[in-house]
Amino acid sequence: MRRKAAILTSFPLTMVGGIERYNFYLNQLLESYGYQVDIYYKNDLPDSIINKFVHRSFPQIEEYFLLPGLIAAQLSSYDLVFTNGVVGGQLRTGETRVYNVAHGILAAGFNTLKKQDKVSRCHLTLRLSLFLERLSKKNKAGIIAVSNLVREELIRYYNVDSMVINNGVDLNHFRQSKDFRAKRKSYGIADDEIVGIYAGRWDPVQKRVQFLLDVIRERTDIKWVIATDTKIDMSEFDNVVLINGAGYDEMPQIYSMADFALQLSLYEGFSYFAVESIACSLPLISTRVGVADGIYTDPELRKLRIESWHHDPSFMDEVNSKISFLKDNPDFRYSFAKRSRELAKQKFSLEIWRKTMAEYLDLPGKRGA
User: Which residue, among 229, 222, 221, 219, has the nearest Cα to 250 in the 3D structure?
Assistant: First the structure.
């Protein structure tokens, strides 16, 4: 009999979005080992009045309780089930092995936000999310943390251990494009301009994009590329190339137009942007989030890690000093670029992720084509 697996997640599997891509790769992995994989997400729920109310008012309950209801009666027909964060968290391991993938810890993100913004109250829906996040880690066959940071946070906030399996990126896809000069020219970027890039969701809370805008205003000596899926008004800037809705296939060329990447996030569980940047041989300036500990592996590389935080008076000065350092030291840019690509190969390749996941899950038999 063919083995079966189920993945419970918020959105359909695509290559856009971190969790969506993770489950896309997970689906591929399981199918390569001969599993029939069923995907369940919120659009599969019946279109009832109660479900509509819960979806609008308490989406966490929809994710934690209602979505697992789609397979609760047939749970034993599956060999493996994967839940993502709170999504599907109600399910428990019995005859079927149920795993939880921790892409980030809401409690850690909120705690950081409180320190930065002096938030004194926790909204009811957020309290509910924190409570369900804790419950989602109970009675699982295993918890998979996407970075060392997430593992440490699981222990700190919930006293739960986990297996660290860094997310992987396709290094055959994400690599420096040879025709980057033609790509720069197509966007009106001169060969002698120094280019910084930000790619990702335009989010003022988690990504702290308002600080990015402050940097862009101040650093008119830098050409900036912003690749996002949000339509934003950049008309005040003469030094910004805005790229909306770029597809997965185009992103390596877009990364390759830049000389460095800048990440000012308040919180990341992993950060595909960071790893895609180094895979495309870009020096990365970043706050201490996600997989920064795996990128800044020695004092020389740590010259680009931002040590202060957004609320510190020195934050913008530190960001500017690192940009200036990169601008004025082309040899360091070249050295970091070579080393960053090697780091991506050693720690964040899709092949390493597949091998480690297969071993951890004890996937049976010979891998299929």
Answer: 229
Range of the domain at 357: 4-168+350-361
Question: Same domain for 9 and 150?
Answer: yes
Q: Name the amino acid, one letter, at 30.
A: L
Is 175 part of any domain? no
The answer to whether residue 302 scores a pLDDT higher than 50 is yes
Strand ranges inside the chain, DSSP E: 4-8, 36-40, 80-84, 97-102, 142-145, 163-164, 195-199, 223-228, 240-244, 260-263, 284-286
| Closest alpha carbon to 344 in 242, 289, 287, 271 | 271
Condensed to tens digits (0 to 9), the pLDDT of residues 12-38 reads: 898 888 899 999 999 999 999 999 999
Euclidean distance between CA atoms 66 and 58, whole angstroms = 11
Dihedrals φ, ψ of 285, to 5°? -95, 125
What pLDDT does 367 receive? 47
What secondary structure letter does DSSP report for 261?
E
Are residues 79 and 37 part of one domain?
Answer: yes
Residue closest to 30 by CA, chosen among 360, 354, 356: 354
Same domain (yes/no): 118, 199: no
Residue with tokens 């479900």: 51
At residue 365, the pLDDT reads: 60
